Amino acid sequence: MTSSDETNTTETAAETQTEQAVTAPKATKREPTTLGQALAAVTGASIRSDLPELNIGDTVRVHAKIIEGTKERIQVFEGVVLKRSKGNHADATFTVRKVSYNIGVERTFPLHSPRIEKVEVITRAKVRRSRLFYLRPLRGKATRMKTMYTNSKEESPTQAA
Asked: Could you list the residue range(s) of the whole structural domain that residue 61 is in?
């Protein structure tokens, strides 16, 4: 081989390396995700949109799934919403209170839980507080609140002729 052939070959090899470097995609630097962004991505899929608007003072009927061994059933818990926490986030909760056999029972439900089958709003009440803990020691008619709305399907008194 002559020296001109050798220089031609080295120039061609150098040109192909340069072309490969130009056509190869540049490695982009990935932005690190924050913990908040990761949590929002994971919990965003679990937020339910089929729930009614719940307010403090509403009388609600919560249909919750109960698992006993291998069997699953629906249990209804009806009472007054005492408090809500964390707005409409994935970990939001609401507390419902009822009186059963003269004993006050409170239960806190996760709002977006898959264990909640459905929530029915029976009545809406006008309240001026965000927490109704003052209802705990009260009994009977003392626990009444101003009713703004009553579900007409549930409460339809029949007239005797």
From this structure: 51-150
Q: Other C-beta atoms within 10 Å of 18: how many?
A: 10
Helix (H) or strand (E) holding 129: none
Residue 40 forms part of a structural domain: no
What value does the CA radius of gyration of the chain take, rounded to a whole number of Å? 32
Report yes or no on 45 lying in a domain: no
What's the CA gap between 140 and 102, in Å, rounded?
A: 10
Q: What is the CATH number of the domain that holds 116?
A: 2.30.30.790
Condensed to tens digits (0 to 9), the pLDDT of residues 71-122 reads 999 999 999 999 999 988 888 999 999 999 999 999 999 999 999 999 999 9
State the total domains in the chain. 1
Between CA 87 and CA 111 the distance in angstroms is: 10
Q: Which residues of 75-109 are buried (b: 16+ CB within 10 A; e: fewer)?
A: eebebbbbbbeeeeebebebbbbeeeeeeeeeeeb
